[in-house]
Specification:
The chain is 26% helix and 32% strand. By secondary structure, the chain is an alpha+beta fold. The strands form two sheets. The chain has a six-stranded antiparallel β-barrel with strand order 3-4-5-8-7-6. A two-stranded antiparallel ribbon has the order 1-2. The protein is globular and about 30 Å long.
Length: 111
């Protein structure tokens, strides 16, 4: 039996469609598993979301409605600058994260 990779799909020379179905089912299972892993990253975040009061200086500083101010790491400022006032974020060990995002932006509390 010969297995050939064509355009990302695996084809078996004498089994045909059944092999493709098995490979696609495996990929779907992996995607589902990865989706289940993402919420575990939020486990190090606070349970209660806070509201963004201001995003200042091109995403360098974020102020939340509890009065805390956060300095955003340079690499994540491109993401933070598009966050909007009144959006919810979670405070995490690693920084700040929108509830539906896969990972937090790196930020350090400065006040």
């Amino acid at each position: 039996m010969t297995i050939i990779a064509v355009g990302g799909d695996l084809h078996k020379d004498h089994v045909g469609g059944k092999a493709r179905m098995i490979v696609k089912q495996g990929l779907i299972a992996v995607c589902c598993l990865l989706g289940m892993i993402a919420p575990a990253q939020a486990a190090s975040c606070g349970a209660k979301p806070l509201e963004i009061r201001t995003v200042a200086e091109g995403g360098t500083i974020i102020e939340l409605n509890d009065g805390s101010r956060w300095a955003v790491e340079r690499a994540d400022q491109v993401f933070a600058r598009v966050w909007l006032q009144a959006e919810n974020v979670l405070v995490c060990e690693e920084g700040l994260m929108k509830p539906n995002d896969a990972r937090p932006i790196s930020a350090t509390r400065i006040q």
